[in-house]
Protein: FBD domain-containing protein
Organism: Triticum turgidum subsp. durum
Amino acid sequence: MIGSGSFSSLLLNAASLSPVELRLALPRNLQVSCMDVTLPSFHRATSMDLRAWDLHLTVFAKPHAVNTTGLIDMSNITVHSASLEELVVEHGNRWTRRTHVSVDSPVLKQLTASFHACGNIGVSILAPMVDKVCWRCSYAKPICGLGLWGLSEVQLPSVHVLSLHLSPVQDSVIFPNAELSFGAEIDKHMVTNFSGLDLHLSTKGHVFGAFVLHLLGMHRIRTALRNLKIVLLRSEVKDACPVNCFCDEPKNWRTETITLADLENMEIEGLGGEDHEFDFLEVIFRCAPMLKTVTVRLSDGVTPSVDWCTKVNNIFMAYPSVECNADLVSRAKAVC
């Protein structure tokens, strides 16, 4: 173990050398007695590679550090910089109980972040110029959700796309203040405004329509949504709902009307030809008056029946102003 004073002196000595590149790596078995450390200014640095474990780091970069890149591997960081243009924050493959990231960088253009959280996370990002984002937060277990569905991962694969990964949880799991907590957790990751929503649902045989409509009806999502992509993930062994499963609640979701006034494009992958999937498709057509394109794809290995083709065609024919496409070729090479 080293004292925080000694560690700070080491950083100051390094700064006095005015390096163009800074690489700081602390071994896993080396601990700093005081976890809060301020990184001094490195006036000439154009690249910073910082790796430490359980270190609370505050970074201040000088304005004339024109193109600074920081790679930071730790659980709590604060970055204030008038010049930082690219920042990479990685937690590797380890799980952290508490994660806090605060970034205030007016000219930051590229942000990459990866977390593995098994507890609460706090995020504050002020970066109005950012135009490239790759953000991923995985949860050891769902800490929020809606009804049967728990949130397992949040991604921002690009600057205007929000990607949510959800799966059914055990009956014993109850999410208090579900909608409020779910919305607050999503807001933590909203580094930029989004117009596209990708939903990755591990269905395990459950009906998903009621949940997805509940999610799309949330104000934060409903008012931003332009493009919707739903990926239905199925196991090789066909699952079935248990008796009296509440995944299909409320029963009136098939006649529900929500306003998706700005939704223009929808894509659904992994359809299995079940009746509730057609019901969901019809609700979206009815609730999205500005819809321009719809694409549906069968799940791998599913052979489309004549009845499936007829139902899809009837729905598409009812909305001639929408460009509709059905990819009916599965890995079984069946076409109708």
